[in-house]
Amino acid sequence: MQAEKLAYYPFTSEASAHVGNLEISLESLLNSRAYRAARARGIERVKEALEGEIRKFPSSGEAQVLSELLSYPFARMLVACIDDQLFTRRYALAEAKAAYTFLKNESPDFLLEFGDDFGILADFHDSYFSMHFTDYIRFSNSLKDPSWKLTNRQLRAGKIKITKEEFARLLEEAVRERIEQSFPIPDIPPEVSNFCSPYTAEIKEQFEVQKKKFGATDFGVIEPEFFPPCIAHALANVQGGVNLAHSMRFAMTSFLLNVGMSVDEILNLFNISPDFDAEKTLYQIEHIAGATGNTYKPPACDTMRTYGNCIGKDGLCAKISHPLGYYEKKVFMKNKEREQAEGKEQTEKQENEGEKGNAT
User: Fold this and answer.
1) Cα(257)–Cα(277) distance, integer angstroms
2) Are 228 and 326 a contacting pair, CB within 8 Å?
3) Per residue in 282-324, pLDDT tens?
4) What is the DSSP string of 183-229?
5) Are the beta carbons of 207 and 50 closer than 8 angstroms?
6) Is pTM, for the whole model, over 0.85?
């Protein structure tokens, strides 16, 4: 693979070997003026991942290609120092999506070679790829569109027939898995964590703001900190770019609608998910919201457990039988505490005024 190509796919074994052959020391990568552009690009790609899209441009010139290549290991240092599972998922997804923009335009021979690096053995014949069903299941498992289900595919001699674009999409999942599973990185050298600290602090702060974004005042009286564990976990997964099972998507969407979130606000929550289809997602949300005349509530806790969507009870869960009941109880408890605090404050105020009156 030419160096320019390696810059597009820096997570491949060949790219890693190429960077290793350059024999650039860690100290040089962190401190040398020669690699300032690589460090700047590494910071940029992590911040772009935070926004959901790493913008890659065709590299031209030896210096630019080298900066793009070296930006990837530096970006990995930043992600490792951030050490947040949700952010790691976000980063891996963004890198994979960026790779897909190039992969879908590559030649069949290139895609076959690329797949081989990930242990995917495939063939190309008559404009179609074929791959073993075990590899197909492994990389299509997280894709929730019904068209990816094995029952909707032709299985012959243990192989699945797919289009070039579909094969590229599965390679995207392979990239995401490789990057995600390469973290966490143990025993980060102190010089790395110290050097990265100012940048990771800024990125962490921005990420925390994003994670809390769905609870901003735009959503009125909605109080996300009172969501039951199952819904909070589902939201965290969505924000991490993880596809939810259909039953959990329904439960989360119906819950959010019932506590007052709008259709557009829920749609914006899903727009980071892999295979996000705005039109299809909007239709599903509007359907749950009552566009067809029927409104829906989330399933009861027993049903959530049946579908494997209960992640474990907290103290309040044991006394509640429905996710909405959990939220309502939490809100009630908060309001009661506030009323008690206000009553106490009023009593103290009256007592103070009485003491002033007696003094006069």
Assistant:
1) 20
2) yes
3) 888 988 988 777 778 899 998 999 999 998 888 899 888 999 9
4) -S-SS--HHHHHHHHHHHHHHHHHHHHHHTGGGSGGGTT--GGGS-H
5) yes
6) no
